[in-house]
Design goal:
Radius of gyration: 17 Å
Number of strands: 8
Oligomer: single chain
Number of helices: 1
Shape: globular
Strand order of the largest sheet: 4-3-2-1-6-5
Strand content: 25-35%
Length: 122
């Protein structure tokens, strides 16, 4: 028996593709395409939202309540048209193994917090 209801808050890590995303006034912006995150750092960057005008980026600080049924944002209806498109032509993931090990490259990566990216293997 599950105690989770559709309006129970969930973590961004449990958010499912296709979940509706709403403005602060309750108007649907679109549906979650994917969560932008770096799981190795437990870092939530935002959402890629599929809209009638294509993919749009919703920054993490604009995301309010996340439930199984929906994502509520603090975006006003008139701001929706200004949401940016995701940049770049490829989907990239952070490579957490880049900082592993005892080598000089790994040490520099940890010291200077370089971002290392790899192509997604979809």
């Amino acid at each position: 028996m599950s105690l989770v209801t559709d309006d129970t808050p969930i973590a961004y890590t449990a958010l499912q593709k296709g979940t509706p995303v709403f403005t602060s006034d309750g108007i649907e912006i679109g549906r979650v395409e994917h969560v932008l995150q770096d799981p190795s750092l437990d870092l939530f960057d935002g959402l890629a939202v599929k809209t009638g005008k294509g993919l749009r980026f919703v920054d993490a600080k604009r995301v309010g309540r996340i439930t199984e049924a929906s994502v509520q944002t603090n975006i006003a209806d008139d701001e929706v048209r200004t949401l940016p498109e995701p940049h770049g032509s490829e989907v990239l993931d952070a490579d957490p193994d880049e900082y592993g090990g005892n080598g000089l490259s790994a040490w520099f990566g940890r010291m200077f917090l370089r971002e290392h990216w790899m192509r997604r293997k979809d």
